[in-house]
Structures are given as structure tokens and as C-alpha cells.
TrEMBL record:
Residue ranges occupied by any Sigma-54 factor interaction domain in the UniProt entry: 182-411
The keyword Coiled coil is annotated on this UniProt entry: yes
Keywords for the protein's UniProt record, in alphabetical order: ATP-binding, Coiled coil, Nucleotide-binding, Transcription, Transcription regulation
One record GO biological process: regulation of DNA-templated transcription
SUPFAM superfamilies: Homeodomain-like, P-loop containing nucleoside triphosphate hydrolases, PYP-like sensor domain (PAS domain)
One of the record's GO molecular function terms: sequence-specific DNA binding
Coiled coil: 127-172
Source organism (scientific name): Desulfolithobacter dissulfuricans
Stated name of the protein: Sigma-54 factor interaction domain-containing protein
InterPro entries to which the protein is assigned, alphabetical: AAA+_ATPase, AAA_lid_NorR, Homeodomain-like_sf, HTH_Fis, P-loop_NTPase, PAS-like_dom_sf, Sigma_54_int, Sigma_54_int_dom_ATP-bd_1
Domain of life, source organism: Bacteria
Gene3D superfamilies reported for this sequence: 1.10.8.60, Homeodomain-like, P-loop containing nucleotide triphosphate hydrolases, PAS domain
Length: 506
């Protein structure tokens, strides 16, 4: 063989080797490879492509492949290889003969100058199926969640409706919380109870208003008992009972050396009661200095001890009560507007007894039972005529006045029932200043033990002293030569209200 023939044979072998390798390479590729001419005839398909679509070589492209080729731009020789490389890497999704595929298509000029398009394609139907499943699942989950949320909202609304119904039924049936010592099922009292139950559980400050003797302290007790702080400390402070500087150090504590006698730091009630509730009675009477300190507690939840500068954080719920018209006090510049707003977040106003006379019968029966037990009396009957008489009265001293009247009547009653003679209406019998007041000792002998009669006297003396000094407790204490705190204790025991006396209603 000549040298040329040998060289030719070598070249042919090399070409065959390369063709064989390329074909093998293309056939082992998992991707499908198509070579399509510009007249849309398929010139080549590798093994994967044939396995998926069947052998379509030398046949015209289906519409889907045609579309792929039509979308594929031929690059001019001037355009860089980089441009065609970018196109080759751009993966596009399509559906070919019903099969979801991902492909890249590269146009190029063939060996003899013909225009060809190589399409490299991957079957993604499995992946699509999974994607669809996940998307269906998400949509379903969303739907299920939406449905569940709607169901929950519905049942929450139902729960609220039922709870409202239960509350109103409880009210109608006269159901009382075990801590509810308030007697009365008039509409006003039912609404009052409902309001207490609605607001008790929040930590909001509550202002209880109402005339003297309407039961503000009872309402404060009920709020505390039905609140989230029921088992936490509860302190009641009568802001009117102690003078201003004592009240301030009592409530906020003091630092060592704050004043003469302050030998060591002392915590105030707000710190002691931390986590619990403070009931500030007669809040309308506090000084402007106290008003500022109280505003700090309500606004920032902190106090400053007397003589100190460092604020101390406290967590105390405040319930305040007053029979002063605070709005008027604000207008008269006696009470700070900002404090009024802070206190008045929730206002529970207790109507006077004359506006809910339906409660009188229940109250009478309650007090008769109570004092019959206390005085060991046999009374088991209150005639209709007596009830009618009580219904005619206007009760300026409210429930306290009614309670005092029944207490006296039970004490005075000789038989098993209360009679007209046992009724002592304060204003009628004694006059407002009580000048003609005197205790009928004879009628008590044999009815009460000595201790009881003396207690009656003590009560009379205190009431008369308070009347004499127009409800000024300090003055009465000085004149009677007893401590102010002791006098307050006795007034509490005998249910005497200095305020009511000041107003001339007790
Ligand atoms: N609804 C009620 N049921 C039973 N007792 C009541 C009721 N309302 C008030 N009382 C009684 O009347 C008396 C006065 O009530 P309370 O001290 O709560 O009134 P108040 O409005 O705080 O009076 P003040 O403003 O003078 O301090 C108490 O002995 C209380 O037990």
C-alpha cells in the first residue's frame, strides 16, 4: 500500500473512531437529543429520544417540535459563540406529544453549510406530577385551614353568645357568684353584676361611683374576687381617713431620713401589695400632691418613695371609689383632668336605692335574717304595711340607711314581727342634727345584754359627735379623746358614714 493510501486509511479509521465515540456518547446520554433541519425534517434522534417518542428520523417534526424550532433563532456568524452558548443553557419547559419536557435548543450551521437545530430535552413529567401534587396539597391545606378557622370563629361566636345568654339567665334566676354579697335583682343590679363580670378579669383601672351607702365597697370586693388577682393581696385604703403626708408614706413608702423618725427605709402599700389590687376609697378627696403621685402609678406603673428619687416598678391593679362628682371637681380645678381620665377608664356607677326600689323587699329580708341571727331574735315576719312604708321612703342614705333601720327595728321588736313602733327613720324621729336623740334604755333591758346596750350607746355617742362636728372625724376623735384609727374602726363596726353625716343624710 502506498503511503497516501495508508494515510487515507488512517484518517478514515480515525473518523470512524470519532463517529463511533460520538454516537455511543449520544446514545448513553439520559437526555434526549434531536437534530432538526431547517425544513423541519428530523435528521437525528439519540436512543433516549427514540425510546420516548419512537423513531421519527427523516420524518417531519410534530407541531410541538416545530414550535420549538420556530422559536429558536439562528445566529449570524458575526454573533458570538457566547450568545449561542447562553441560548444553549437556557432551559424552557414545553409539552411535546403530551409529555412534559424541559429543553434547550441551539441553532447552528452544519458541515455543508445547512442550517440545523439541536434540541436537548429531558422528560420532566414525574417532576411535574410531584409539583402538581404539592400544589394540590397546599391548596387543600389552605382550604382546610380556612374552613377550620371559619369553624373556630363560628364556635367562638357561639361560645360568646351562649356565655351572654348564661349570664343573663343567671341574672334572671338571681344567680350570684359566691363572692357576691350584693343583694338585689332589679334591672339596675343585674346590669351592674353583668358589668362587673365583664370588666373584672381585665387589669384595667376601675372607678366606682355612687352616693354614700350604695355599696361601692361591696362592688370593689366582688371585682377583686372575680378578677385574675382573686388570690393575690387586696388592700383597702380610705383616702379620707388619714392625713395627706401619712397617706403618701403609707401608700408609697419612704426612704431612710425622709422625715424625722424615718430611721430606715419602709415599703409602702403599693410595694407590699405588688401583684394584687388596691382599693382607694374616697379618691375624690386626695390632695394635688397625692394626685400627682397616683397619676405616676397609673401612667407608668411606678412609684417613688417619700424622700427618694428612684422610681420603683409596681404591678398593682387600682380600683377607686368616690361619691364626689369628679367631672365637676375637674371643672372646679380641684381634681386633675389627666388623673380623672386615667381613673375613669371603666366607670361603674351604682344607682341610689330610690331609683331601684324593687330591691327593697329583698334587702329587708336579707337584713332581717342577718340581724335576727346576730341578736338571737325570733322575728319571722315583716307585715306588708311595713314594706309599703319602707317603699314610700326615699333613702337618702341608701342601703346603709335601710340596713341601720332594720338593725334597730330587729333589736327593738318585741314579738315575732316588726311593727311601726320599731321603725326609726332618722330624719323623722331625730331630726337631722339629732338634738332630741335619746336612747330608750328601758325598752332594751331584758332584750339586750349589758354589752349590747352599751354598744348601742357607743354608736349613738359617735353618731352625735360626728353630727356635732359636721362629719369631721378628726375633730370628733379629738373631742371624744380616742385615736382617729380607733374611731374609724368603731364607725366601720357600727356602719356609720362620716360622709353621709356631712351631707346630713344619716
Ligand atoms: N346591694 C347590697 N346588698 C347588701 N348589702 C349592701 C348592699 N349595698 C350596700 N350594702 C350594705 O350597706 C352598707 C354600705 O355599703 P358600702 O360601704 O359598700 O357603701 P359605699 O357606697 O362604699 O359607702 P360610702 O361611700 O359611704 O363609703 C354596708 O354595710 C353594705 O354591706
Amino acid at each position: 500500500m502506498s503511503n497516501t493510501a495508508t494515510e487515507l486509511q488512517k484518517t478514515r479509521d480515525e473518523v470512524n473512531r470519532l463517529v463511533h465515540n460520538w454516537q455511543t456518547l449520544l446514545d448513553v446520554m439520559p437526555e434526549m437529543v434531536f437534530l432538526v433541519r431547517d425544513d423541519f425534517i428530523i435528521e437525528y434522534m439519540n436512543r433516549s429520544a427514540k425510546a420516548c417518542f419512537g423513531d421519527l428520523c427523516s420524518r417531519s417534526c410534530c407541531d410541538d417540535l416545530r414550535q420549538i424550532c420556530a422559536d429558536c433563532r439562528i445566529f449570524t456568524p458575526e454573533e458570538s459563540d457566547a450568545a449561542s452558548a447562553t441560548t444553549a443553557h437556557k432551559l424552557t419547559e414545553a409539552v411535546v406529544k403530551g409529555i412534559s419536557v424541559e429543553y434547550s435548543a441551539v441553532p447552528f450551521i452544519g458541515y455543508t453549510g445547512e442550517q440545523l437545530i439541536m434540541i436537548v430535552m429531558r422528560d420532566i413529567s414525574q417532576r411535574k406530577l410531584h409539583e402538581q401534587e404539592i400544589s394540590d396539597f397546599n391548596t387543600n391545606i389552605e382550604k382546610i385551614l380556612e374552613q377550620k378557622i371559619a369553624e373556630l370563629q363560628e364556635s367562638e361566636e357561639l361560645r360568646r353568645r351562649l356565655s351572654r345568654q348564661v349570664n343573663s339567665l343567671k341574672n334572671q334566676l338571681g344567680f350570684h357568684h359566691r363572692a357576691d354579697k350584693m343583694v338585689g335583682s332589679s334591672r339596675a343590679m343585674r346590669e351592674l353584676r353583668e358589668m362587673v363580670h365583664q370588666v373584672a378579669r381585665s387589669d384595667a383601672t376601675i372607678l366606682i361611683t355612687g352616693e354614700s351607702g350604695t355599696g361601692k365597697e361591696l362592688v370593689a370586693n366582688l371585682i377583686k374576687e372575680t378578677s385574675n388577682r382573686a388570690d393575690k393581696p387586696f388592700l383597702k385604703i380610705n383616702c379620707n381617713a388619714i392625713n395627706d403626708s401619712i397617706l403618701e408614706s403609707d401608700l408609697f413608702g419612704y426612704e431612710k431620713g425622709a422625715f424625722t423618725g424615718a430611721t430606715s427605709r419602709k415599703k409602702g402599700k403599693f410595694e407590699i401589695v405588688n401583684g394584687g389590687t388596691i382599693f382607694l376609697d374616697e379618691i375624690g378627696d386626695i390632695s394635688s400632691r397625692m394626685q400627682a403621685s397616683l397619676l405616676r402609678v397609673l401612667q407608668n406603673g411606678e412609684i417613688i418613695r417619700v424622700g427618694g428619687t428612684e422610681p420603683v416598678k409596681v404591678d398593682v391593679r387600682v380600683i377607686a371609689a368616690t361619691n364626689v362628682d369628679l367631672a365637676k371637681a375637674v371643672q372646679e380645678k380641684k381634681f386633675r383632668l389627666d388623673l380623672y381620665y386615667r381613673l375613669n377608664i371603666i366607670n361603674i356607677d351604682i344607682p341610689p336605692l330610690r331609683e331601684r326600689k324593687e330591691d327593697i323587699v329583698e334587702l329587708v329580708s336579707h337584713f332581717v335574717n342577718h340581724y335576727r341571727e346576730a341578736f338571737k331574735k325570733d322575728i319571722d315576719f315583716v307585715p306588708k304595711s311595713i314594706i309599703n312604708r319602707l317603699l314610700l321612703h326615699d333613702w337618702p342614705g341608701n342601703v346603709r340607711e335601710l340596713e341601720n333601720l332594720i338593725q334597730r327595728a330587729v333589736l327593738m321588736a318585741k314579738g315575732k314581727m316588726i311593727t311601726e313602733q320599731d321603725l326609726f327613720f332618722d330624719q323623722n324621729k331625730f331630726g337631722i342634727d339629732g338634738e332630741n336623740r335619746s336612747l330608750d334604755v328601758q325598752s332594751r333591758i331584758g332584750v339586750l345584754p349589758l354589752k349590747g346596750i352599751l354598744a348601742e350607746f357607743e354608736r349613738e355617742v359617735i353618731e352625735q359627735a360626728l353630727r356635732k362636728f359636721k362629719g369631721n372625724v378628726s375633730r370628733a376623735a379629738t373631742e371624744l379623746k380616742v385615736g382617729k384609727t380607733a374611731l374609724y374602726d368603731k364607725m366601720k363596726r357600727y356602719n356609720i358614714s362620716a360622709k353621709a353625716i356631712k351631707k346630713g343624710v344619716a
